[in-house]
Amino acid sequence: MHKGIKIHDGIFWIGVNDNETHLFESLWPLPKGVSYNAYMILDEKVALIDTVKGGYFSQYLNKIKALLPKGKAVDYLIINHMEPDHSGAIKVLVEAFPELKIIGNKKTLQFLEGFYGVTKNTISVEDGEVLELGKHKLKFYLTPMVHWPETMMTYDITSRTLFSGDAFGGFGALNGGIFDDQVDLEYYEDEILRYFSNIVGRYSGMVQRAFKKLEGLEIKIIAATHGPVWRSNPSKIIELYDRWSKQETEEGVVLVYGSMYGNTQKMMEAVASGLCSEGVKKIRLHNITQSHLSFIIRDIWRFKGLIMGSCTYNMELFPPMKQLVSALENRMMKNRYVGVFGSYSWSGGALKELEEFANRNNKDWTLVEPVIEALHSPNDEDLQKCELLGRNMAKAIKS
Ligand SMILES: Cc1cc2nc3c(=O)[nH]c(=O)nc-3n(C[C@H](O)[C@H](O)[C@H](O)COP(=O)(O)O)c2cc1C
């Protein structure tokens, strides 16, 4: 990974791996790192597509210099996305190549000035405009809010490569191989979904708009800004992204509970038995204080059913459950079933908030009965109701 890697005639991956950052966007755990993918096209004109996070500039620059033919300079930097994990090296890049012309759309150039004070040698492009490098012809597609307002994609008409920005990208550094046929795809697919559901999912409608715009385009390679480059089976990730952004779900249920002393957990175990008795195999159980929210959101995005159970804490929902409920509303998830239950010892409060969530969002989440509330510790009747909730949820997701 110390030098550029050819992905097609004249096109090179010049990205870097970050195995140091613990939390992407200071929020999302990176147990296996993340790659910041950037690309270089060598033609009559030389173009770079995106940069890397600031601290990785020297690795990036070394790759550029090693590939750059003698006597040539870098002519263009195309900015698909201004988030600093991709734009962080722009300012120093401009110092290294002062003649460089920076290409972005109107919004990109506003961000460029705001973040880095760069205003010189910029070219604003419109949706559908084409830039000729020689053999390679790059067409720009503005795809706002996938996932920032300035995001765009760059399509190389010659090689049929789509430089897609953050779309189709995911967590996980690239360890050796960079292509879909060289890596453990099962791992990356999970991490692409974790990236999508937590970061891009809220803008699913805009992802669908982008799909409409790209309709009919022959795509042989997808080169995103994170994760593997799809050269063998790009249609696989396109299909997954299409399904996820249409909020199509799989048959399965996510169980999330918050419990301090085990009573609420006991209720969730009864729910799980009910699901199992109706043949549900894909059950993902999360103790909310043990699983990071990003993995819970990933599973909820994937499956059709969600059951949440919470103890009461100072008159309210258990604090991390509150965070989950707010995250669900922020992601604007749809077409799913939800079941809720709670426990308390004097005044209650947790269940009320979960029911309020279900009622507020009843167009997007269909409530599955019964709703159960246990005082102190669940009795036999409570546990039977929990099993019934599991059975009813199983029937709902199979209907
Ligand atoms: C710090 C703390 C705060 C609590 N606050 C409330 C409360 O405001 N209202 C209430 O009815 N119960 C309250 N409870 C009681 C628990 O919600 C109740 O015992 C519940 O059954 C605990 O479930 P668990 O065993 O799954 O943790 C509180 C318990 C603790 C430890």
Automatic annotation (TrEMBL):
<dbReference type="GO" id="GO:0046872">
    <property type="term" value="F:metal ion binding"/>
</dbReference>
<dbReference type="InterPro" id="IPR008254">
    <property type="entry name" value="Flavodoxin/NO_synth"/>
</dbReference>
<dbReference type="Pfam" id="PF19583">
    <property type="entry name" value="ODP"/>
</dbReference>
<protein>
    <submittedName>
        <fullName>Flavodoxin</fullName>
    </submittedName>
</protein>
<dbReference type="InterPro" id="IPR001279">
    <property type="entry name" value="Metallo-B-lactamas"/>
</dbReference>
<dbReference type="Pfam" id="PF00258">
    <property type="entry name" value="Flavodoxin_1"/>
</dbReference>
<feature type="domain" description="Flavodoxin-like">
    <location>
        <begin position="253"/>
        <end position="394"/>
    </location>
</feature>
<dbReference type="GO" id="GO:0016491">
    <property type="term" value="F:oxidoreductase activity"/>
</dbReference>
<comment type="similarity">
    <text>In the N-terminal section; belongs to the zinc metallo-hydrolase group 3 family.</text>
</comment>
<dbReference type="InterPro" id="IPR029039">
    <property type="entry name" value="Flavoprotein-like_sf"/>
</dbReference>
<dbReference type="InterPro" id="IPR036866">
    <property type="entry name" value="RibonucZ/Hydroxyglut_hydro"/>
</dbReference>
<dbReference type="InterPro" id="IPR045761">
    <property type="entry name" value="ODP_dom"/>
</dbReference>
<dbReference type="GO" id="GO:0010181">
    <property type="term" value="F:FMN binding"/>
</dbReference>
<dbReference type="GO" id="GO:0009055">
    <property type="term" value="F:electron transfer activity"/>
</dbReference>
<dbReference type="InterPro" id="IPR016440">
    <property type="entry name" value="Rubredoxin-O_OxRdtase"/>
</dbReference>
